[in-house]
Amino acid sequence: MIIRDIEFIGSFEKEEQCPTTGLPEYAFIGRSNVGKSSLINLITGRNDLARISSTPGKTQTFNYFLINNSWYLVDLPGYGYAKISKKVREKWQRSMNYFLMKRHQVYCVFSLIDSRHKLQSVDLKFLNWLGVKEIPHALVYTKIDKVKDSEIDAHIETIESELLEHWEYLPKTFRTSTVNRTGGEDILAFIEEINNK
Q: H-type helices in the chain, by residue range?
């Protein structure tokens, strides 16, 4: 897929405020500091579409980008660590859960996993929730350039073995590196395949 046109539609705090065009939506989410903004910039071929910050929890709204006038890329708030109160964090979680259950036009949720680390409990909890709610999703391993080539397969196999203790099968998976600029085209091809069905 070649991205010819990108339009920022807006940032929304509630699902009710989000676009009602019915166009396909593809949401990106992950634990804070997983590299989500960098990945979105890689996918879109833009250096500053999503704001990159060293401060976890920077994204606090549902950010909509219209791609090629045919589908939306949705940048969702991260989960896990963020310097916010428990009350605000719980509010985010309720809003996120409602969004993902309500937005039937979300064709796939791309859940980002940091390939450098063991599967975190917060990741497992969120992924299991997606499975229970039968929300279509895919796994995106980020920062694979930070793991030695000789170790990356074993590292990801360990993560997936843990997931298979809870799941019957794995969803579609992608390996990405914004440093080496790999994986973005695979994700776009997957989106195009779904859109063409």
A: 36-44, 86-102, 121-132, 149-163, 184-195
Q: Which amino acid is at 161?
A: S
Domain containing 181 equals 6-195
From the number of C-beta atoms within 10 Å of its C-beta (0-12, 13-18, 19+), residue 74 rates as buried
Q: Is residue 1 part of a domain?
A: no
- Please name which of 103, 164, 167, 109 lies closest in space to residue 138, comparing C-alpha atoms: 109
pLDDT, tens digit (0-9, with 9 covering 90-100), for 118-161: 888 889 999 999 999 999 999 999 999 998 988 899 989 999 99
Q: Are 102 and 15 in contact (CB under 8 A)?
A: yes
Cα(35)–Cα(43) distance, integer angstroms:
12
Model pLDDT for residues 62-120, shown as the tens digit of each residue: 999 999 999 999 999 877 655 556 676 677 778 888 899 999 999 999 999 999 888 88
When divided into structural domains, the chain yields a total of 1
Q: CA 62, CA 10: separation in Å to the nearest integer?
A: 8
| 76 found inside a domain | yes
Residue found under tokens 């509630």: 14
CATH number at residue 59: 3.40.50.300
